[in-house]
Amino acid sequence: MSTDTQHTAADGSTEGRFANPFPIILSAPSGGGKTTIARRLLERRNDVGYSISCTTRTPRHNELDGRDYHFLSREDFLARRARAEFAESAEVHGNLYGTLRSEIMRVLNSGRHVILDIDVQGARQLREAFPEAVTVFVLPPTGDVLLDRLRNRKTESPQQLAARLHSALKELRAVDEYEYVVVNDDLDRAVRQVGSILDAEVVSRERVSGLRHQVEGLIRHLEAEIDHHSSGPR
At a CB cut-off of 8 Å and minimum separation 6, what does 171 contact? Predict the structure, then answer.
């Protein structure tokens, strides 16, 4: 992934660097597609970087340490959490997961927005640590599609599947906590929608920043004029 903070727009133009990058959080019930959307955005945009999460679970057959996760022992994870190294952490299905503050800052300091695919309880913690974060909830189009995606994993026991179903139910009930909701009925469209959300937030924040600068200039001008009239002859 390039560290260039520019990205190519749909019309082929290259957009400029961002002075105030921010985190963008994707949450979804398990099987909702948030990880796939995050990966597509990383492939298509150079102004987005990925924060690699930590976990104590064992790697799956196609996962690599430092690419998919930082795979830690439980002891190492707990020691890092005691040192307040995590912006968010949680125990999910018996395993610990967390996002290192240093990982988020690594991406932000490179001038890129940082995309995080984390669960609802992690998103709540991360919003406290980074209030400027943008939150997006990814919904499957129907309950049947969600169940099919969960069942098609075929890597879990019936007990693990049941636990994921309970987690999916809890996460769906938290959808009102999110600023945006994207329905993942078509992957390419969902990726475009999340990209549009990111672009809209950039424009909005640049506009607010510009307006504040303009207002501050007007205030200074008026204050100087008031001082001039106040110090003049009475």
Answer: 27, 28, 29, 30, 119, 120
Q: What is the arrangement of strands in the sheet containing 23-27, beginning at the earlier edge strand?
A: 48-50, 113-117, 23-27, 134-139, 180-183
* Residue pLDDT, tens place only, 53-96: 999 999 988 899 998 899 999 999 999 999 999 999 998 878 99
* Cβ atoms of 183 and 190 closer than 8 Å: yes
Q: Give the N- to C-terminal CA distance of the chain in Å, as an integer.
A: 67
Residue 125 CB contacts under 8 Å (≥ 6 apart), including other chains? 87, 88, 89, 90
How far CA 134 is from CA of 44, 66, 85, 171, 217, in Å, comes to 19, 25, 22, 17, 29
Three-class secondary structure of residue 182 per DSSP: strand
Give the residue extent of every domain in the chain. Answer: 23-231
Residue type, 131: P
Residue with tokens 């469209």: 189
Q: How confident is the model at residue 183, as a pLDDT? A: 92
pTM: 0.75
- Would you tell me which CATH number, out of the four given (3.40.50.300, 3.55.10.10, 3.30.1330.120, 3.20.20.70), belongs to the domain 23-231? 3.40.50.300
Identify which of 101, 97, 89, 109 has the alpha carbon closest to the alpha carbon of residue 130: 101
